[in-house]
User: Fold Aspartate aminotransferase from Discina gigas.
Amino acid sequence: SSTWSNVPQGPPTHSRNSTNTLPGITEAFKANTFTNKVNLGVGAYRDDAGKPYVLPSVRTAEKRLIFKELDKEYAGITGTPAFTKAAATLAYSASSPVLDNIAITQSISGTGALRIGGAFLERFYPHSKTIYVPSPSWANHAAIFKDSRLDVKQYRYYNKETIGLDIDGLLADIKNAPPRSVFLLHACAHNPTGVDPTPEQWRTISDVVKNGGHFAFFDMAYQGFASGDTDKDAYAVRYFVEQGHQIALCQSFAKNMGLYGERVGAFSLLAASAEEKKRLDSQIKILVRPLYSNPPIGGARIATEILNDPELNTQWLSEVKGMADRIIAMRDALKGGLEECGSKLKWDHITSQIGMFCYTGLRPEQVDELANKYSIYGTRDGRISVAGLTSGNVKYVAESIHNVTK
Ligand code: PLP
Assistant:
């Protein structure tokens, strides 16, 4: 018999491929022949024509790179220093007093950063190896940390009744966790709910995390993509650092540079001193080397070019803002459209939520009805990707949502 006859068929894995957010949706969407069908399951930005968007700053960086005729030698284990330095500066800010104490490595986008972080905690975190993730969270968080052999538990985050943040539940769960637990925090544009704490709530969260002696592990997959301003979106990360938290941070350039398939990101740890940074750097290298030796150079070169060239950087920031603004405009249009239809329900959460995703509050049967009657496809938890809305389809989507909720 085959060596692998004992390997069972696993359940379908949700692919990173944006057209395949949930297998059922994609198939149903593809098979649908209605010309006005709408896919709100996509996990990647789309332009106002519903097409994938390559940032002009990225195109320019690519052209410059080709012209430079660079070699294809290996990067160092932790990537190219020009990239990691620029990534750290973007996250922690150029004026941060801790910049010199950051141990950082390039990573295979945000996912790879989380996986290195999981491995580092598993090997070196001196207290309980339980990581608390929000309920709900990006589904891959639990998978990544379980594969890192950490215990994964949840803290309350989303309140179904208010379609907003369950701040009381969140604070209570942090308070009641065993001292020195690890908490995964979405830095901005929480996926899947689009619900973020306010700056004031972040300050309270910081206090409660500190009082418990907990460790803050930030996932910042959407810096700039949420508000359109990379500084504003880094508020929580920078505030925690200011308050003396020794944070871990995962960064991704998938969304804010549209470099999804290039797989460029970073993982960093804040050290207490230059001497400690050296020790952390050495152990990160020891972790990465047997995993994949060293990271790919292509995407990192594009990001480096954009981050380190002042003119291109300014252009990129305006393009990030353009993406965020389009999403914010679509939120306004969807809410406005529902009001125009005479919907008696409250839709304020559509515009108070942020980032690519919106938790509409639609029930699974209503999501099914949207698909079956109106050819509009979202996930059954009521999540829609706002990036799938366009000025051409938003009115139709609003009318259809009204029809299934009135
Ligand atoms: N973290 C969150 C919350 C995400 O939503 C994503 C992508 O959807 C990621 C991390 C990582 O994505 P990537 O590995 O493409 O950078």
